Sequence to fold (140 residues):
Amino acid sequence: MGRNKIQIIRIENERNRQATFTKRKNGLIKKAMELSILCDCEIALIVFQENKLYQYGSEGINKVMLRFAETKEIPVEDHSNLDYSTKFDEKVIKQKKKDDRSTLSKRSNTNELTITKKKNSVKKWIKLHQDFTTNKAIYY
Fold:
């Protein structure tokens, strides 16, 4: 029996929302720990819910946050809830893949033409070289 897909919108029922929060928070912390251990990276996770604070730090939250505060590096990635539909919405992703395949197909056709042209050029150069080495070519 498979799981049903849910819409990612605010859960109106407070009791269901709290149960979902607890389960997903624990899953998020587990994933953060696994990522830190498997990939040897530092992770700081801060969650506020109502007036409660939950935190996880792979090297201790203070150490990771201090490194964050002192860094002069520009973030490689910066995400917010506004990114959800473009990164995880299946309809948007399917359309993007379709567009990428179309672009790839156009590039592939262009590459095939380029390769054919290169092969023809190579054949001409080989013929020219053969003519030159057998003194068949006449140069002015």
Remarks:
- DSSP finds four helices and two strands in the chain.
